[in-house]
Fold this sequence. Notes:
Layout: H1 8-14, H2 20-33, E1 40-44, H3 50-54, E2 61-66, H4 69-82, E3 88-92, E4 104-109, H5 120-133, E5 134-144, E6 156-163, E7 166-178, E8 183-194, E9 197-208, H6 214-222, E10 225-231, E11 251-257
Parallel strand pairs: 1-2, 1-4, 2-3, 4-5
Antiparallel strand pairs: 5-11, 6-7, 7-8, 8-9, 10-11
Helix pairs in contact: 5-6
Amino acid sequence: MSDLYRHPEHYDIAFTWDLGPEIEFFGRVFAEHVPFPVRRILEPCCGTGRFLLELPRHGYSVTGYDRSPEMLEYARRRVADLGDPVAARAVGGDMVTALFDREFDAALNSINSIGYLLSDEEIVAHLRNTGASLVKGGVYIVHIACEWEGEPDLGQNTWTMERDGLSVTTTWRIESEDRDARLSQQVCTMEIDDHGKKSSHTFRETLRLWRHYDLKELVSRSQALEYAALYSESFERLPPGTRATGEMGNLYHVLRAV
């Protein structure tokens, strides 16, 4: 497990943004692709619990799971503050083995969390178990970026977020891509300013390098989901057959439980 996920407070500040537009988009996807009202949502890799807090405000109940003890403890404290265990809960679990028996109407996997599964076998097991955790006709929305068609942009993306006097400046960049091994080597650096006390952490992340057809093939192998639709990072539906590339950013793949 990456050391990045052993620093939940810093991670939560760094990756905090307004989830409202994305949750509104999820609602549109549910209305278009699910033949019944979506009420119960599963979130693999729930992290610090951002969606666990926000989704109930939009009328959903949500269960998140995570394998990081630090993230899980942080998320559970936040969920406890809601005072409603039916609206949100955080449980231990990992993507390969987590299974819930047809408990959920939909599932969400944000900002390439599924990319930490590196082998086809791990991904197929995850897709099979997630599909089996959904009511038939429910959807799994997977948010990933594919390999670049040309040379990958190895430039860095830097942003600063602040909360209660604690500032986190995060730089995330692609270090290299191995297309034969289907691995992406990435580097995350966090510069922390905690009321004038400064520190720095650097984390090296190995993620799945997705090819445009990978997910469709693995979904088919799972026999628990089928590929339904593709949306851009600006929430627009893309035509069937669109070739997903890194140049397009993070895309939303909609998978339907069968």
